[in-house]
Amino acid sequence: MLRPGDSAYAAASLLANMRFDGTKPAAIIKCNSVEDVRTGLAFVRNNRLAVTPRCGGHSWAGTSTTTGIVLNVTPMNAIQVNANGTTKVGAGARLAEVYDTLIANGVCIPSGTCLTVGIAGITMGGGIGILDRQFGLTCDNLLAAEVVTADGRLLSCDAHTEPELFWALRGGGGGNFGVATSFTFKTHRIEDITVARADFRFQDFAAMFDAWQRWPQSLPDNIWAQIYMQFGSSGASCTVTAYCLGTSSFLQPYWNAFLAATGVASNDMSTAISQLPYRDVAWSMCTGIPLKECSLSGYSPEGRKTRYDEVLSSDFFNALLPAAGIAALNQSVKDAMAAGISGSYIFDHMGGAISRVAEDASAFVHRKALFSVEYATWQSRAVYDTTFPNRMRGVMKAWSSGGAYVNYLDPLLKEWQPAYYGANYARLSKIKKQYDPGRVFNMFQGVEPA
C-alpha cells in the first residue's frame, strides 16, 4: 500500500491525462493477486471508503483515480496463449504487453491502437480498432472473465456461468460491477496488413468525407478506414488511412475507387500504400521502442511516451451525413480555428462484424452505427476550451444517433445513460443491483442499481 509521502506514491498516483493530477488517492494498493484485490476491497468496505480499480489509467473523466482507495491491478499482467485459439490475459496488462505476446505467437485480438491503454477498460467499454469490421469489437471476442465482486467473491463468468455479469462486462463500462482480474479471448491468426494513406487539403474535406462515408457500401469486411482531421493555429489537415487484412494487390482497386470517388485531382493530394508485417502496424505508436519503454513517462522508470492534457467527446452516426451535416463539420473547424482552438476529429468506420451482433446481445448497443467520431481538444498555446468537444455533439445532433462511446467518458454529458447504453441501461441497472447493490463501485457516470 502506497500512501502520500511514500517515495513511489507520486508516480503511482498519476493518470495518463494530466488534467487529473490534482486528485490524490488516500492510498494506492498494488494488487499482485486475487487475494490482494479481496483484501483491498475488505479494507474499503470496513472503512466505508471510496474505491476505484485501475489498469491503464486512461479514463477521460478521471474515473481511474479517487480521493479514496485505488486498487491498481497492473502487476496482474500475465498473458497465456493457448493452442486452442484462446488467450488468457491478466486484467493489469496494457495493449503493448498483449500485442507483444500475441504477435510473437502469430495471433491477435481486435482492439485499439493506443498501446498504453489497459486491456480491462477497453474491453469492458467495447473496444474499437482497425480489425473490428473483420473480427468484431474487443468485447465481442471475450469468451470468459474473472471478477472480484464488491462482497469479495471471485466469480468466473461466461455465456453459461453468471451470464448476466458476462453480458454487462461486454460494453457496460469498466469500474461498474467489480474488479476484473483476468479475461479469456478468442484469438485470430494474422500475418501482413496493407496500409494506404492519403493526405488531403482542408478545402477538399467535404468531397473526401462524402466518399469515405459511402465507401463501406462496396467494401469487404477486411478493409477498415479512418479520417484524422487536425486543426489549430497553423491550419487544418485531413488524412485518410485504410487498413486491409490482405495484400496490397487486394486493397489497391478498392483504394483507387475511393480516391476516384473523392473527385480530388491526384496532384492535390499525396498518397502511399505498403504491405507490412502486422507487428509494424500494431506497434506504430512505439516504433523503434522496446516493450519496457513503451509506457507513459512517470508510470515506469523506462517509460518514453508523454502524458497529455486533453478533453474528448464522441458521437455515433447510423445514417450517411447529408450535405448539410458535412457542411456543419466543415464550418465547425473554421469556427474553432477562428476562436484559437486546437483540436481533432477522428472518424472510424464501423459495420461489418460489429453490425452482425444484435444490439441487446451484449451491453454495447451501438451496432447500427456506420461510423463513430472522437472530438478532441488539448492544452496548447492556443485557447484551451474544455467544453468544445461536448459542444460538437450539439452541432451534429440533427444527424447523429445520440449515442456516445463509454470509453470516451464526457463529464459534460447530461443524459449519459441513454447516450452510452441506449435501451440496455435498464438491464445494466438490474445487474448492478444484483452484484453491487450498495454501490461500493460508485464512479462518476457509473451504472446505478435499479
Written account of the structure:
There is one protein chain. With 450 residues, the chain is of the alpha+beta class. The chain has 13 helices and 17 strands. It has a seven-stranded antiparallel β-sheet with strand order 14-11-13-12-16-17-15. Strand 4 and strand 5 form a beta hairpin. It is globular, with a radius of gyration of 21 Å. The two termini are 34 Å apart.
Rounded mean pLDDT is 96
Class by SSE composition: alpha+beta
Number of strands: 17
What is the count of DSSP helices, taking H or I runs of 4+ residues? 13
Radius of gyration: 21 Å
Shape: globular
Number of domains: 3
Name of the top-level CATH class of the largest domain: Alpha Beta
Distance between the termini: 34 Å
Percent of residues in beta strands: 15-25%
Major β-sheet strand ordering: 14-11-13-12-16-17-15
Q: What pattern of helices and strands is seen along the backbone?
A: HEHEEEEHEHHEEHEEEHEEHEHEHEEHHH
What is the CATH topology descriptor of the largest domain? Vanillyl-alcohol Oxidase, Chain A, domain 3
What are its keywords?
single chain; 450 residues; alpha+beta; Uridine Diphospho-n-acetylenolpyruvylglucosamine Reductase, domain 2; Uridine Diphospho-n-acetylenolpyruvylglucosamine Reductase, domain 3; Vanillyl-alcohol Oxidase, Chain A, domain 3; 3 domains; seven-stranded antiparallel beta sheet; five-stranded antiparallel beta sheet; 26% helix; 23% strand
